[in-house]
Structures are given as structure tokens and as C-alpha cells.
Amino acid sequence: MVVKFKGCEAVKPSKPTWKGSLTLSEWDQVGTITHIPTIYFYKSNPNWITPDDVIPNTLKDSLARALVSFYPLAGRLRWIGGGRLELDCNAMGVQFIEAESDSKLEDFGDFSPSPEYNYLVPMVDYSLPIHELPLLLVQLTRFKCAGVSLSLTISHAVVDGPSALHFMSEWARLARGEPLEVTPFLDRKAMHGGDFSSRAAAKPPRLYHSEFDQPPLLLGQSDNVQERKKKTTVAMLRLSKDQLEKLKCKANDSYNLYNNNSSAGSTTKRGGYTRYETVSGHIWRCACKARNHKAEQPTALGVCVDSRSRMQPPLPQGYFGNATFDVIATSHSGELVSKPLGYAASRIREAIEKVSNDYVLSAIENLKNQPDLTRFQDLHALGSDQGPFYGNPNLGVVSWLTLPIYGLDFGWGKEIYMGPGTHDFDGDSLILPSSDGDGSVVVALCLQVAHMDAFKKHFYEDCLQVAHI
To answer: What is the share, in percent, of the chain residues with pLDDT greater than 70?
Structure first.
């Protein structure tokens, strides 16, 4: 696919905004601190029979107005020592790129992520100093059929998924001529632990946090350098509503066997396994089979839990920052494969139920006391061999099942497809709800090329097997 770049400019807030250093929470500075891409495709619309500059001008104008309220996105990060960052709110702006292609939307088939997306998603030049990198880059690409794609890549050190979607939704509202619906809450002290409201009343308990340990290595290996280098591929795997129900029945057939005791401080209602617990457990088991692990191979699955409603008091509406909490489910491959699906789901539920107010505050306090945060930062987008690696023998499964990811309308209708952009790190996976609301889910999965065919085989064959009661 040939893409011609027509222009690139900085879009700055349309009005003066507060300038100064914004302290980031510890949670902003661990895990993935590079940029995360998403992409939207739109069919041509009769309303587009206008001068060519109307669409980009509408997007840029509304973006400039959105940055008045969301001004941290117009700033820059800077290192302050000890692997720590702060946010310089300097209104330098975000990058807006315009491009065009001779391709048509139908050339993309089912829109599965592919290397061609590299030309449609803004590239971040990580060879530059971090204080020169925009926190948000946007690319508008026009196609021969008059359709367009709108892609964004946004710094995960500044926002998590819910905050990024909050910004996107408000930007679209402004483009449609509507006012903001929810003003962002920008004070990161809400996640500082001991600095906000009643959280200052007592020092958080000291709890063990397995999420700060290095993930398991393949047996017989002393590092994961070679695993990081292996070629990967991406698949978009759909589970119909019927297949999903069969998986949930399989998982819940052994529910009582693995859930006799409720975890202390549990924040999750007891009951049958959720879609996320079921599908994540299924992915985990299939990956162990496809990777042909030895039975005694330790394996970890990274789970992202939104702590907004789990904090006491809950975080303010519109909290703009990172509030998703990474926890780890662990097991051995032999146990996952030999035991029913309910066992894998129970390991995941156990990890999720740890996330209480005390657990989050304890984790933040733990990070505050670390002399250097570098070892907790995932810098694989920079080509580093350091930081957590959730490739073989591990996985990371992120859920978008409850996020408002669809229906982004800038005034010319909703997208025909929305999904992750470039997605090429072994073990990364994402569960999305179907865009047509039919109850199905889609798993966007990246695995090493050598393991993908076997994974697909197990992924669908295991859905058909009769559950053991």
C-alpha cells in the first residue's frame, strides 16, 4: 500500500491554559509508558461533498478546543531521575498528520491488523529525547473510495484506556458542535495514596505484590532476550455468542470446585465466571498447548483492573490519568492444560479480587519507596531488553469489553471499524465486544509465528468439547 504524506502540523490549545509541572502518580510511571495506537475507519458520506479541507479543519479546530480542557495532552514528559517522570504542561501541542492513499476500504477485508497499518498509524520517533515527543499524534488518511481512517497513538504514561476514550468522546462532541459532557479531573493526587480525602487517615498496609516480580522465564533459559527477538503475527479470532456461552458453561461446570472460599477483602460479587475470566482462561490454556510447554513450566497472565470504583472513596468522575491496576495470575502449564477451564478462570478471578482500596494504596506506597522505577517499566517499543516481558511463556490479556469503544461520530457518522493499531509483541492480547452488538467477542492476539496455527486449532476445537462435570 502506498501512502503519501501531505502535511504535518502542531495543534495547540485554542485558549491559554495552565502551565507548569504536573506530578504524575506512581501508576502513570510503571508498565507501558510508550504510546498506544488505535484506528477508526469511516465510509464516505454525502456530507463530505465539500472542499477537501473541511474534514481536517473540523478535526483540527475541535481538537484545539478539546486541548483547552485536556491540556496535559498538549505538554511533554521529562525524566527527573530514578526512572521517574513528570509532565511539563507547556502547551507545545499535539501532532496532526494528513495523508492519502490509492487503496480502498474494501482492500482491508475484515480490517485485521497488518503491517500496512504502519502507514496509517503515526510513528513515534523514540530516538528523540522524551521531552521532544508529542504525547498524542493523530493521522487522517483519505482513500481512493473517499473513505478515511483516523488513527491516534497516545502516551500510556499520561492516560489509560478509559481516560483515552473519555478524551476521544469529548473531542467528537466538540466536533459535532456539542458542549463537553464530563470535564476531566486532572489532579493526580487522587492516585497518590495518602494525599487525597480520607486516604490520609491511615498508612496503607504492607502487602505482597507479585505484579512487581519479574515474569517467569522458559525453563532452561536465563533470560528472555531470544524470545523477544522471534517473529510474531497477529490474528483476530471471533467467538460467537453461542461459542461464548459454551465456554462459560464449561468454566462454570467446575465453578464450585475452585470457589468454595471467598477471598478476604473481595471486591467482586460471587457468581459464575465473567466473559473476561472465561475467555482469558481459554486463551491462557490454548497458549500453553500451542507453545508446547512442559507440564512444570511456570506461566503468568497479566490482568488490567480498573481501580476507579474500587478505591475508597471512588476516584472522581472523569479522573484523567492511569487508574488501571496490573495484577498477575500464575500457574503451571500442566495444571492449566490438565484441569478444567474453570481452574484457569479461578486463577484469574483470584488475581482480580485482590484489587481493593488497601491493595492499590499498598502498591503505590511500595512504588514510592523504590529508589528507581526503571525495572517496572515496559520499554519494549524502544527495543530494550529490560522491563517486564509477557511473551512466551506468559501472556497479557486486556479487556475492552465494558469500554465505550464504538460509535465515535465527529459529525459524519459512526465508524465502520475500530480496533487496535499496530500490535506486534508476543503475548499481547485484547478482548473486544462485537461492534454489531450480537453478543460475540473478538480476540486480537499476537503470538510468535511458530505458535499461531496451533493456537487457532486449540482455540476453536476446545469450544466444541463437552464439559466434564
So the answer is: 90
